[in-house]
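Possible regression after last week's pipeline update?

I re-ran a chain I had predicted before the update to compare outputs. Posting the input and the new output here so someone can diff against the archived version. Not blocking, just want to make sure nothing changed silently.
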Amino acid sequence: MFSAEVSQRLGNYVYRLIDPRNGQTFYIGKGNGNRVFQHAMGALQEEEEDEDELSNKNKRILDIKNDGLEVLYVIHRHEIPDEAIFHVEAALIDAYAGLANDQGGHGSNSFGPMHTDQIIEKYSLPSIDWEPEEKLLIININNIEDRSSANQIYEQVRGHWRISRTRAVQADFVIAALRGVAIGIFTADRWLASNKIEGRYFFEGKPAPTVIWEKFVGKRGKQLTHEGMKHIQYPIRYWNF
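New output (post-update):
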């Protein structure tokens, strides 16, 4: 544990948890004081409460301890200003694959790793810089092979999502967002409970009418520049409801 003096000197920091068995970084976090050491304690408490509900991070910590070893702790950067801590953590999360973090880095969906050609394309596209009157459900999706295929976009954006069905059915349209760009928009005729993943939902629908598609997507997509439409950490974003 850090002493009070050391904690004060550290300030805000970003840290890595490393598996001593293979040297792999398996978790990245931010904090101050003794935050970096609290995960091991939390894993033990969680095991006592319900072993079936252990997070991937805590399962890894317990496996390490059961092998008679201890997690390795690395303070990756310290004395980080408050306004920068989320971005430093996000950059580190983006740099390490296969982490046990439940959430992506702050702003990674919009500002995370991109090829230089993708950067040029993204910032040369027109923007949705007004405040739409429509109720929009904006869902962030992963890379897609053919952005010109409305069917491929639909198959990826339709589900299965951990989402409030009560809220989802209120949406006029569902926007598929890729790295901060609206690349498709659809009407959801109905939301159904997933038969693949318990507690999640998917929708059945179709591409929005042409006039709506042109308004929000156009030929190559439109940037989501309004703060209320940007994805921060979660893949789901509600607009106007």
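Follow-up from reviewer: compared with the archived run. The radius of gyration is 21 Å. Marking as no regression found.
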